[in-house]
Amino acid sequence: ERAYLNLLQYNTIISASQYASYYFSLRTAAIAIASPQKPEAPSSPGQIAR
């Protein structure tokens, strides 16, 4: 596979900062998908009917 990618001149190397950027972006997206938003509970009974 490496030889094939070299023939294509396909760069498979990314910098550490680029890797970290992709990692945290994907991690944030995965967490947002996995945990649905919960509606906020009113802090006092008087806030229920508005």
Overall description:
By secondary structure, this protein is mainly alpha-helical. It has a domain at 1-25. Helices cover 52% and strands 0% of the residues. The protein has helices spanning 2-8, 16-34. The protein is rod-shaped, with a radius of gyration of 23 Å. The termini are far apart.
Draw up the topology in text.
Elements: H1 2-8, H2 16-34
Rounded to an integer, what's the Rg over CA atoms? 23 Å
- Biggest beta sheet summary: none
The dominant shape is rod-shaped
Give me the secondary-structure category.
mainly alpha
Task: List the main descriptive attributes of the protein structure presented here.
52% helix; 2 helices; mainly alpha; 50 residues
Describe this structure in a few short sentences.
It is built from 2 helices and no strands.
